[in-house]
Amino acid sequence: MNQEKTTTFSKWISRESLFQLALWVLYFFVLIQQIDYYNERTGKNVTLGLRHFVFAINYLIVILLISYWVLPKFLYRKRYFTAVALMILFLCTGILVEEFVMEKIFFGNEGPGQQFPGFLPTLWDIGPTIVFFVCAKLAWDNLKKQNVLEELEKERAESQLQFLKSQLNPHFLFNNLNNLYSYAQEGSPKTSEIILQLSAIMRYMLYESKENFVDLSKEIQYLGDFIKLQELQMEDRGRVHFQVNGQPQGKLIAPLVLITFVENSFKHSMSGQADDIDISIVADIEEDELHFRCENTFQAAENASNEYLTSGIGLANTRKRLELLYPGDHSLEAGPQGDRYVVDLRLPLSSRKQATGRMVTAGKVLVQEPLA
Length: 372
Prior knowledge:
By secondary structure, the protein is α+β, with helices and mostly antiparallel strands. It has 2 domains: 2-147, no CATH class; 159-368, 2-Layer Sandwich (Heat Shock Protein 90), CATH 3.30.565.10. The chain is 66% helix and 12% strand. The longest helix is centred in the middle third of the chain and has 68 residues, at 119-186.
């Protein structure tokens, strides 16, 4: 991580050097145009010479002192009075060096070197150039700061999402190991098949789902494997309808956001009903949106409330992840409707570029509203 940050810093330094070089090339280009205009207007034949470069170096030193010492050491640390005082000091020093040293060297006592016109006229002459370079430095620093903040926000979002996903895996494993233990105790011939299905599912959860976004086709395949595993355990107690409409290939989705709803549908149905279980899972895939609907029959205890159905680590974490990755860009409705529990989810499907943008947005959400 430190090496990566050092590389990023080096890239910014090299980019800034090129940026500053480009500004000075632009400065001399404008200076040449001004000299040409002066020659046309006066009929003289002034050319770009050594003195122009020497005078430029004088103010280059002033610009560098302000940009790389005054700004970071004082202005950015909110020591405004000191920053302004030092800027004035360096400007006055640059003007005095030009008027009493450089002009004497290049012009002697003739021409511009005869008398000091004062600080204000000279400042009016060279002020716009210095302001231009300092403002360019301010803009560059602000851009660099924004990029650093976005990187930090992205890293924080990734850490938070990995934490949420790490809670989902034990939650899933705990539920299924309990079921597997029961089958093993009974000596069921389905035990080996359940272990194979569970192995395939855990492989996806541990390896494929490490990315913040995965291909929707992989997530659909994972749901199919999970449903097969649950059907083995459900035996002949009911029906499961799983349907996918549309093409999932090439569309990205956050991993493990759908599995919680499917898992809950089996858990609530199988724990509350002896038979006549009816579960329907439909994924409608459009060009840039997924409409996911999961329904199941259930029979809650008489004293059970909606909280029984809507609580739990898996569902709570899924809601948090949806809020992080699709803030204000998804809809989730979940709750009982008669004797059925219905989950209706709509969320946008992303390209790789859009997925990267969502990670940055997730970081900003975390900065504004940190999760507990």
